[in-house]
Please model this.
Amino acid sequence: MITQSIGIATVTLNPAIDQSVAIANFAAGEVNRVDWEQSDPGGKGVNVASFLADLGCRVAVTGLLGNENALAFERLFAQKGMTDAFVRIPGKTRVNVKIIDATQQRITDINFPGQAASPADVAGLRDQLAALIDGHEWFVLSGSVPAGIPVGLYGEWVRMLKSAGKRVLLIFTILLLVVVAILTLPIVLYDVEEAKFVRDIRDNP
Model:
């Protein structure tokens, strides 16, 4: 059973505010009327952390967060009781738009690239990750990466965490997974659904 005794930290380098917009019979190149709209702080690592916090896990979140629109994330972290270890960077966290057309049963995604990371941002994030090693058994590295992130960064972090005896879960696109695998062999990587990750924690506390 998952309890507060299990410490989990998630890393989200490129979080997003997920804006869902409902438009019946959406037509590109035309004026469209919005039926309803909802905006939620997200990013794969943030979503995993939120889900695990609801299950009673002790969760910390880190990554890169734009300081101009961080409030929605800060409210979520406080509401869920998650430790906020995000590095604040200049600018805004990206907004990803999802256009939902229930009439035609189609969804259109518009994803922004996100703020570029500076060398100082990357160094600060590494320090945050190292500080989370004590007190956390699992580390989840997931999602897309913004510009400015060195190609070998995830491999470096995985080696650091594994050498400290931590369990590491990677949730990526297939392309990024292959890149990390090449850079970190013979480290074992996991590419699974969030639900399977939760079961793995439950069965191997």
